[in-house]
Amino acid sequence: MTADQIREYLEPRRHEFADPRSLVLPALKFAQTGRGYLTREDMEAVAEATGYSASYVESVATFYDRVYTEPVGTRVVSVCVSMSCQLRGADQVWEALCDKEGVDHHHGGTSADGRITVQEAQCLGYCDRAACIQVDAEETQGPHTPDSARALVDELRAAPDPDEYWR
Amino acid sequence: MADYARVDLDAENQVTFELNGRQVSAPAGTMLVDACYAHGVEVPIFCYEPRIGPPVGACRMCLVEVEGMRGLQTACSTPVRPDMVVRTDSPAAKDGQEGVLEILLMNHPLDCPVCDKGGECPLQDRSFKFGGGKSRFFEGKRHFPKPLELSSRIALDQERCISCFRCVRFSQEVAQDGQLTMQERGVQSQITTFSGDAYEDRFTGNIIDVCPVGALTSIPYRFVARPWDITNTPSVCGLCPVGCNTELTLRDGDVKRVTGRPDPNYEVEEGWLCDVGRWGFDGDGGITRLTRAIVRDANGERHTDLTDAVAAATVALRGASKPVGVLLGATATVEEAAIALELAGGALAGARVARLGIPAAPLAALRATPRAQLDEIERADLVAVVGGDPGLAQPITELRMRKAVLRNGARLVTIGSRPGTLADVATHVHAAPGALTAAVAELAAQIGATGRPVVLWDEAELAAEPAAAEALAEAVSANGATRQIELGADVNGAGLRALGIPATGLLEALEAGELGALLTVRADPRSAPGRVAWEAALEGDVPVVALATHADRTTDAATVVIPVQSLLEQEGTLVSMTGRAQRVRRGAEGPAGAAPGWEVLIALGHHLGAPPAYRTASAALAAAGGRYAGIEGLTYDAMGVGGVELPRPAADHLAADAGPARAAGSDGLALVATRDVYGGREASRAPALAAFHAPAAATVSPATAAALDVTDADTVTLTSPYGAASLPVRIVDGLSDDAVFVTLGTADAAAEALMPPDRGPVRVGVSVEARR
Ligand code: SF4
Ligand code: SF4
Ligand code: FES
Ligand code: FES
To answer: In chain B, what is the straight-line distance between the N-terminal and C-terminal CA atoms, in Å?
Structure first.
C-alpha cells in the first residue's frame, strides 16, 4: 500500500478524529487490506501518510490484536474466550478449532496451508449468543458448538479469497 | 538529584500546605513530589523525570494521600494547592506504595547479583525503602532473550524493564530521533525500534542514565565493575567547547565509564551527554597513546624516561640563540597556558606564546555583547543559529534548542550554508558561504521585533566573515533583551584568550626565521589549519619540544617528545565557549611514562633556572588568577563542582589578534570546513564509537556534483592557494551550491591542508582524480 493510497483513504475520514494520532489506527487497518498483514514498507507508508515516526506506527500496530505485523491466514477466526462464552463451552470450541487446524492450544495460530488463522478474542459483546466466533471483521456469529465451528472453517476454506482483507 | 526538579523556596507566590503534619510551602504549580523532596521528604518515583518532560503517571509509584481527594494521588502529577493536607507516610499511602512495588516486581527477574545496575539501582533502593518485602505471585515470570542488543553500545534486558517510558520519552521528546517505542502490551510490552533496527543516533547513551532499573546498560561497561569497586569523580568533558559536566567512574586506576552528573549543571548540559562525550574515553589509551618519552638527536631516536626527556628539552630550548616559540593547542589547560606565559616572562624570556585557533580580533565586538548560558535558550521566544551545525560541533546545544521548540514553543531559525541536524524543527534561511552579512541584516529586524531572543553564532564562520560579525554584534546590542551564545571551535579557546594569548604571530615569526626553537603543548600544528605552511616553517633545523598525549604528525618529527596526561588523568581548568571556568579532575592514573602537562612545564622552569613559585596545579591557577584580569580571582575553591562564569572580554580584548585581510576571490568553489565531533580524531580512536566512524569526504550538493560532473563513486583533488587534498565525493541534499564541505579534525587532516593558519575564507579548485 502506498502513502498516497492511504492518504486518499484517510482524507474523507479526517474530521472524525479530534486528535490526529487517532488516524494511525484506521490507516493501519486500511493498509493491511492489501495482504491481510503489514510489511515494513506498509508501516513506513502509514508513517508518511500520517506524519508520525515509523517506530510509533509500529508500536500502535503491535498494540492491537487485529493489526498483524506477521503473515496470517486468508481468513482469521476469532473465538471468544471470555466469561459468558466460557460458561457455554468456548473452551471446547477453541480446542476443536485448534485441533482441526493443527495449531497449539495455548496460542492458536495459522494452519499449515495458510488458509485459516485461529486466535482468541475477549468478549465480543455477543454474550447472548455465546459461545461466539467472529470471522475477519464480519458480524459476530453464535451460538457455536465444536461441530458447527468445524463446519464453519470448512466453508471458509472452500470460499473464494476476499478482495480486501478487512480484519 | 536529577530525578526531582529544582524548587525555589524563595520564589514569589508560595503556596502553603500541610506535609506529614508540618506546614510547608512551595511555589504555585510545583509538583507535589518536588515540593516534598525540597522539604526532605522522599516520595518514591520511577517514571517522573522533569528533564524529559511533563509527568505521564505511567508507573504509579508516587502514590500519596491527599485529604479530601478520593483514592491515592500520584504526587508526580499533582500540583501543590493552598491548604492541601498531604500524607506520604500514612498507612493508606504506604499500602499503596507497597502494592505498586509488588506489582512492578511481579515479573521482574530479581537477578540483582548479576545485574550491572545492582548497587546503584533506584528499583533496588526503593524496594528496600518503600517495599513490603513480599510477593504473592507464584506463576512463572515472563521471559525474553537476555540481553538484546539495542545498538552497538546499549544492551537491553527486557525482563528487567518496568515500562516507565523514560527511555521512549527521551528518544521521542528530548533527542526527538523518533526511534524508540514500546511495542505490544501488557506482559509482552517491549522497548524496541522500528522493525528492531539498531538504535544508532547521537544522544542514545542518556537512556542508560535515565533507566531506573538494569534494563538498559552500556555494552562497554557490562560486567566491568560493581558499585562498591568504583569511585566517582565529577569532571568536565574535554572533547568540545560546550564543557558538559560529567562523572568519571574509576576502577583500578582507570576510567571505566563516563556518565552525566547525577546532580546536573542546568546552565550547561542539564545532565545529558552526547555519545562522543560518554564513550570517547574509550580511545584514550589506544595504540597511538604516548607512553614513553622520545629524544631524537644526532645518534638517532631513543626512548627514555621523563627526567631525561625534560633535561633534553632544556638543552633544546636553552640552546636556541633566538627566542623560543610556545604553541598551545586547543586542549591546553588554563594552568598550562599560565605556566607557559610565566616561562615566557622568565626562564624563556622573550618567548612568543600563541594558541592554535581562530584569531580573536574579528569577533571581539561580538564577544563583548551580553552573553547567556545554555539555560537561557529555554526562556527564549526566538532562537537563531548563525552559521555552523551545532548538533555536530557542539552537540548538547541541540537538545536545548529542541526543548525550546517542543516544550516552550520557541521559534528556531538556522542561518547558513546547510540546514544541519535541526532541520526538522527549524526554519532554515539559506546563506551561501560569504553571504552571512545580508542574512544577519534580515535577522536583526526579527530580533528587534521579538521579546527574548537568543542568538547562537559559530566562531569559525563568523571569524571568516568579519562584516557579518560586526553586524551581528550591533544587532545583539541594539535590543537590550537579546543574549548571544558563542558556538566555539576550540575546547579551551576561551581559556587561552582569557589569558590574552593570540592565535597569530608565532608562525609568522617562525617563517621570518626569528625563532630558535618551538615548544608545543597539546598542539599539533602539522595537522592544524594551515598545516602546509607550518610544515614548511618547521622544515629547517628548529628543534621542537612536544608535550602530547597521543602520537601525531608533530610528535613524529619532534626533537623531544614528552608524554603528558590526558584530560581524564590530570587536574586542570577549561573555559567553555560560554565563558564558564570549570574543573577537569584527575580520574585515571594514565601511563607510567606520562606526567601532568603543568608538572612538566614547572619542571622545565626548574631546569631552565627560573623555577615558578608553585608546585601544584591549584597553586599555579591561584597565581594566574592574581595576575590576569580575564580570570581574576579564579581558584579551585571558587569553581567548586559546577564552575563559575568569567567576566565577558572587553570589546578591545586581543584587538591586534588578526590574520592578514583576505579577499575570498571568486575562482573555484567555496570551502566550508565543518566540525563534527562524531567524525573527529578523538571519536575515531574509540572502539565503542565504531558506528560513527566514516571516511573523510568532499561533500557537495547534487547541483554542484552535476556541475562538476562527479558522482559519489569518484575521488576528487581539491586545490587551494594553501595546499591540496584528495577525497572521495559525497553528495548531500540541502547544501549550498558552489561549495565543498570538508570535515576538520579527521585523521588525514584534509580540510586543514586546504586552509591558511588563520582559517580565513578559502576557495578551492576541483579536479576529478579517479572514477570508480
Ligand atoms: S527500559 Fe528502563 S527506562 Fe525504558 S521503559 Fe524500561 S525501565 Fe523505563
Ligand atoms: S557536547 Fe561536547 S562537551 Fe558535551 S559531552 Fe558532547 S563532546 Fe563532550
Ligand atoms: S463473553 Fe463472549 S461475547 Fe461476551
Ligand atoms: S512517578 Fe508518579 S506515576 Fe510514575
So the answer is: 56
